[in-house]
Amino acid sequence: MAISPDKYHQARILDRRDVSQDLCILHVDPGGPFAYRAGQYATLGIERDGVRTERPYSMVSSPYEDALEFFVELVPSGGLTPSLFQLQPGDSLLCRKIAKGRFLIDLRSGRKNHLLICTVTGVAPFVSYVRTIYRDWKNGAAPLPDEHKFFCLQGASRSFEFGYREELERCASEAPWFKYTPTVSRPWEDARWSGETGRVDDLLRKSIEAWGLQPEKTTAYLCGHPKMIENCRGILERARWKREAILEEAYYQVAAQEAGGSA
Ligand SMILES: Cc1cc2nc3c(=O)[nH]c(=O)nc-3n(C[C@H](O)[C@H](O)[C@H](O)COP(=O)(O)OP(=O)(O)OC[C@H]3O[C@@H](n4cnc5c(N)ncnc54)[C@H](O)[C@@H]3O)c2cc1C
User: Fold this and answer.
1) Which of 100, 183, 208, 240 has the highest Cβ tally under 10 A?
2) pLDDT tens string for the chain (263 positions)?
3) Which residue's CA is minimally distant from atom 32 of ligand 1?
4) Candidates 20, 25, 55, 71: which one to mutate for ligand 1, based on the most atoms within 8 Å of Cβ?
5) Ligand 1 mean position to 139 CA, how many Å?
């Protein structure tokens, strides 16, 4: 099938950092103008033997950056990620010209606390929020983050999977409007980890209390593993969050045989 230059840029890998065997961070030159807002996603694709395979990926980068940044997990049986993981700097890929998504910072509701909950690569849109707000904060821009506060809870099986822990911890140590708690669900496989343990679902109630978050003042954002999203939505609703105060970005549909495997 011919690739329409109206719809696609020929993007190019600028560099890649392998976080682990199945997690990598890609910097991509979109190959042309690509406007987006923090929290949106790009549609990336590869064409092999006349077959084009495309998938959505949330931008990690802030719209202030030139390159797009993505945090990608390999799904060994997947249609795209095995090919995506073979790409090296200089290699090309397809990028739809239009960014999409409504998983944006909620500035409309009047709620000024933002509770960001994610598993592994689900941190991507949150890093984009934080980088964008940090830049605005440094430049003295309103309305963020004067009154708005951000609280991020990230789960992973082991600590090397967080991807952006150093960056987020650095920001949390500097910015009074940001708190970050990473938690590891398999501490027995991570002997040197001394931080929080358990899944984000396990820590959510405790974190809400520790951070003093109230449902009527807090928008919750859930991103990543669909089972984590389902569990955390239930916890939030039982803690009196209304449905409209819970925003969700599920990265995939949970397979029937996969029971309760969220980090
Ligand atoms: C809005 C949006 C943003 C996304 N952003 C990111 C991102 O920033 N980083 C990222 O890595 N992925 C992201 N995804 C998921 C991504 O689009 C692909 O689904 C994923 O990379 C797998 O692609 P694939 O073609 O290799 O596997 P597929 O052929 O799409 O999937 C094969 C099977 O694996 C399951 N599956 C898909 N992903 C996973 C997973 N991570 N773990 C376990 N099983 C899975 C599917 O349900 C399916 O049953 C996002 C998805 C959405 C909807």
Assistant:
1) 183
2) 567 779 999 999 999 999 999 999 999 999 999 999 999 999 999 999 999 999 999 999 999 999 999 999 999 999 999 999 999 999 999 999 999 999 999 999 999 999 999 999 999 999 999 999 999 999 987 656 668 999 999 999 999 999 999 999 999 999 999 999 999 999 999 999 999 999 999 999 999 999 999 999 999 999 999 999 999 999 999 999 999 999 999 999 887 655 444 55
3) 78
4) 55
5) 36
Binding site membership of 124 for ligand 1 (Cβ less than 6 Å) = yes
User: Given the DSSP bridges, would you call strands 196-197 and 218-224 parallel, antiparallel or unpaired?
Assistant: unpaired
* 102 DSSP β-pair partners: none
How far is 191 from 38, CA to CA, in rounded Å? 35
Protein residue with its CA nearest to atom 44 in ligand 1 = 75
Tell whether ligand 1 has an atom less than 6 A from the beta carbon of residue 103.
Answer: no
pLDDT by residue (tens digit) across 204-234? 999 999 999 999 999 999 999 999 999 999 9
- Residue recorded with tokens 């909950």: 117
- Measured by CA distance, the residue closest to atom 10 of ligand 1 is 72
Q: Name residues whose C-beta falls within 8 Å of residue 79's C-beta, 6 or more positions apart in sequence.
A: 53, 55
Domains, the chain, ordered by start: 8-96 (2.40.30.10), 113-250 (3.40.50.80)
Question: Which positions ≥6 away from 129 have C-beta within 8 Å?
Answer: 38, 39, 105, 114, 116, 150
Contact 261 CB / ligand 1 (< 6 Å): no
User: Ligand 1 in contact with 69 (CB < 6 A)?
Assistant: no
Alpha helices, DSSP H only, in 139-193?
A: 165-174
